[in-house]
Specification:
Number of helices: 3
Helix content: 40-55%
Oligomer: single chain
Distance between the termini: 73 Å
Amino acid sequence: MGFDFTLPGLGKPESSRPKRVAEAIRHELSILLLQRVRDPRLREVTVTRVEVTADIKLARIYYTVARPEEAAQAEKGLAGAKGFFRTRIAKVLNLRYTPELIFYYDATYEETERLEKLFRQIAEERKTDDDPA
């Protein structure tokens, strides 16, 4: 008789430490972007979420900008400020190993807007099809 180790509740529980570190990084980056960064390309950048790997060696930072056409410039600015951000995070969080920062543009807002526009168009078409005018 063998044991089924795939049952829920068995095995090592997921650690909450990566989530806490991710939230601390998001908070610190938000403060740095608002108060310390002088690069004009980063004025409109907002950190939407941060995901940290289980070993805390890598942090994926998702950001958005006020005007989507400025996303390429913001990406260049973030790449240039990566070392500054990592140094400040290392000082504030006091971790044994400061995670590598990788920035990703978060197009969720634009995609949501596009889908809502499509749904509105479908609703309008249904209204015109239902009217016997």
